[in-house]
Design brief:
Layout lengths: L12 E4 L2 E4 L22 E7 L5 H4 L24 E5 L14 H4 L8 H9 L8 E4 L23 H9 L3 H28 L4 H27 L22 H17 L5 E6 L7 E2 L2 E2 L4 H5 L5 H27 L12 E6 L15 E5 L7 E3 L12 H11 L15 H4 L1
Parallel strand pairs: 3-6, 3-9, 4-11, 5-6
Antiparallel strand pairs: 1-2, 4-10, 7-8, 9-10
Helix pairs in contact: 4-7, 5-6, 7-9
Length: about 425
């Protein structure tokens, strides 16, 4: 009998002496039409970016919904990229308000919990030198974006030279790293032994706290082990000229922001990591934009009290942030992945803020957009937040679509339990 005409039941077994052995998937078991090969996830990388002081949202959100919207004043630098991004209005996590609850932006809840980037990093960060990178510009102040499952904030690197050194270190710097890793491992073992002894001597509540501590230590241990595994793997060689000094002073944070975007693009291009978060800080710095010094500090402008002059200056800072973000998207459009396609096509970038209105410390109706990732873009999706229907999406539903497009089997993100596939796929 020819193999082309062989017909076997779909559930076929080899049976002998009471033992049943299931056969593997074979063409003969599937009929004449062979099964379609499994496709890899369309979205392979994730970048999350948050501005601590947010934006003047009436100047951020387009007035018209749909594809034929007019680009808003603050988002105007993104006009050439409108086919590569989707804008959302009316999304948030239904979480508490206030500066301290800015962290809800990526965690979705008012109590400490894991952030979106770290959920993804746990799944796709295993094959790269760095599970994830957490970056900022200079000193982030109170701003934090990335959290472990135990709600512990991950520190962000604010100096471009340090980021470059970690990504592309060579020679003597590797020898120094090897020494530090060896030293750190021995210290870690000592700390664990002492902590386990202490756990047997404390109250139940303190024992729970120590268990959280153990988890954090295990995270460090994992990182040390991974660093050791990658120590002998050559780092990529890149052409990049660092400035003579790190622009980490608060008044130079815009310059630092541009450098971080360039380094982020290099990190993705060299596949050093596939998950990056960037916190764009907001403090009392007084920016000079196009040669003109603003009348007040950035934080003061965010509390504009609806003063038109202060709003105008606050928008100038916001537009500068957006312009630098636009340059980052252009970098990803021009850089290619291993298949020769633009990195932007397979990199999802969430951009926005955990602050809906810095003037009143309101965290609803967050300014959010999604770029790249292979999604269907070009639309302003205006969500009716006041609609109490169960079908009204939350920001977490957007996160679910992003995670599912990366192959993660996530069906819930805090209060969100649907997704926004109908908007983007």
């Amino acid at each position: 009998m020819k193999s082309e005409t062989l017909s076997l039941p779909r559930r076929a077994f080899l049976r002998a002496s009471g033992l049943s052995l299931a056969l593997p998937a074979m063409e003969s078991l599937m009929g004449k039409t062979p099964p379609k090969p499994e496709t890899s996830p369309a979205t392979k990388r994730l970048v999350t970016i948050g501005t601590y002081l947010g934006f003047h949202t009436p100047s951020w959100f387009p007035r018209e919904p749909g594809k034929n919207y007019t680009m808003s004043p603050v988002l105007k630098p993104l006009e050439p990229l409108r086919k590569d991004l989707s804008i959302f209005s009316g999304l948030d996590h239904r979480a508490p308000n206030g500066h301290k609850n800015w962290r809800n932006y990526m965690t979705g809840k008012g109590t400490p919990g894991i952030s979106l980037d770290q959920i993804v990093a746990k799944e796709i960060g295993k094959t790269t030198r760095f599970d994830s990178l957490q970056l900022t510009c200079g000193n982030a102040g109170d701003g934090r974006m990335s959290y472990t499952r135990e709600g512990i904030a991950l520190p962000a690197i604010g100096r471009p030279s340090v980021v470059f050194g970690q990504l592309f270190e060579t020679g003597s710097s590797k020898e120094r790293t090897a020494y530090l890793l060896k030293s750190g491992k021995s210290v870690l073992d000592l700390v664990l032994d002492e902590a386990k002894t202490m756990k047997r001597q404390v109250s139940t509540r303190d024992a729970d706290k120590l268990e959280e501590y153990f988890t954090s230590v295990r995270e460090v241990e994992h990182k040390l082990q991974k660093d050791q595994q990658w120590l002998d793997v050559p780092t990529p060689e890149v052409k990049f000229n660092l400035p003579d000094f790190d622009p980490v002073a608060p008044d130079l944070s815009l310059e630092c922001e541009s450098l971080m975007y360039e380094l982020m693009a290099l990190a993705l291009e060299t596949d050093s990591t596939r998950v990056i978060s960037l916190m764009v800080p907001g403090q009392g710095q007084v920016f000079t934009i196009k040669g003109e010094k603003l009348s007040a500090g950035y934080h003061g402008l965010s509390h504009h009290g609806n003063d038109p002059d202060k709003i105008a200056e606050f928008n100038r800072v916001g537009t500068e942030h957006v312009a630098r973000f636009g340059q980052f998207l252009h970098l990803l459009k021009n850089k290619k992945d291993v298949t020769g396609k633009p990195l932007l096509e397979s990199t999802a970038i969430l951009y926005g803020s955990g602050m809906g209105n810095a003037n009143t410390h309101n965290n609803s109706r967050l300014p959010v957009l999604l770029a790249g990732g292979g999604f269907k873009h070009g639309t302003h999706h205006a969500i009716d937040r006041d609609n109490s229907s169960d079908t009204t999406p939350l920001l977490g539903d957007l996160f679910l679509t992003v995670m599912q497009s990366m192959g993660l089997q996530e069906e819930r993100f805090v209060k969100a339990k649907r997704n926004m596939n109908d908007y983007l796929l």
